[in-house]
Amino acid sequence: MPQTVDVVIVGGGVLGLATARAVLRAQPRASVTVLEKEDRWGAHQSGHNSNVIHSGLYYRPGSLKARLARAGGEAMIRYCEQHGVPVERTGKIVVATAENQLPRLELLAERGRANGVTVRRLGRGEIAEREPHVAGVAALSVAETAMTDFGQVCRALATELTELGATLRTGAPALGIGVTGETTVVSTPGEEIHARVLVNCAGLHSDEIARAAGDRPTVRIMPFRGEYTEIRPGRRDVVSNPVYPVPDPDLPFLGVHVTPMLDGGVHVGPNAVPAFAREGYRWRDVDRRLLARLLRDPALRGLTRRYWRYGVAEMSRSLFWPLYVREVRKLVPSLEGRDLRRHGSGVRAQAVTDTGELVDDFVIDHTPRAIHVLNAPSPAATSSLHIGAHIAADVFSHLGDEDLARAVRDSAAA
């Protein structure tokens, strides 16, 4: 007999799990099922990133990102401390390596202060004192940045959800989605689940899930791979805390940065190159069906017209090692190619408009039976507990409980 629940969440990354947690903490009697197609939680974006808890420095004041990042970061730090997940408040510096980057550095400082971030300007001497191997004409010191392990955060959330009474399913892809009466029916290999509300947190597949549910997503997902290297043992003392370049304000990527990890390693990256499969972790990973669709898509042509110079530069650095090393040496001149080695990659689900513009803010679409999270880039992991509460409030609105929805929104805003 089909199972009927209040909420089914498709996607077991940090955001899907955080949403389930927010629903059950607000309404313990709710029935919630989380479906994850892989055999583990946080298998893709949540488990393949820099593991940085961001401060809220970069985001346009008033945007959803800006509103959720600062408070969300503090909530994530507290969650890690309470649930035994490694976390460390490290701070970071954002470095201008050339004089022409100084106006962008000042814009970042203004944004950070507007968003409640503790920002301090550093001169050359202060950079050398704090990070002697880093080259820069000026920098921003950002106090609130922290490091964690978002894969462990996902596992902690799954453990907590079991205690809260959620039904958790790994190895359970959504093979089909339909509508029967007042419920949405999600078919998995082992069962059919009827839900009053569908929450789509499927990340790289979120636009596909929206279309399968009979909805027209307002954006489409284009996958971008971020490739990492690591510094070999013996040279890992070149930085003591995360060091970032000044990002291009026209792009939703932060540039190649140097990040000491909690396990003692030091990662460099990521870059941002097109991926030819939704889970295209390597150049040879090609989904011909996706590639054919992208080549027919006018959004790709618009994207290419706008960003081709950036794209060519990123792909060149990905394919030609000396060019990549030269980029890293802008921040840390003493590093040589022999000091670095390849160290995996992640794939980012980047939303793009019909005309080929990269979407920087979060995108959450609503239909009568569903909530589709269609763009949740960085700092989504940082802000996931607060984004989860934001989505949970929408869930209760869909379920007709406006009083509870209002209470959840007020609690998240406090």
From TrEMBL:
GO terms for molecular function: (S)-2-hydroxyglutarate dehydrogenase activity. Keywords: FAD, Flavoprotein, Oxidoreductase. Gene3D superfamilies: D-Amino Acid Oxidase, subunit A, domain 2 (3.30.9.10), FAD/NAD(P)-binding domain (3.50.50.60). Its EC number is 1.1.3.-. Its cofactor is FAD. Residues 6-392 form the FAD dependent oxidoreductase domain. Pfam families: DAO (PF01266). It is an enzyme of class 1 (oxidoreductase). GO terms for cellular component: cytoplasm. Belongs to the L2HGDH family. This is L-2-hydroxyglutarate oxidase.
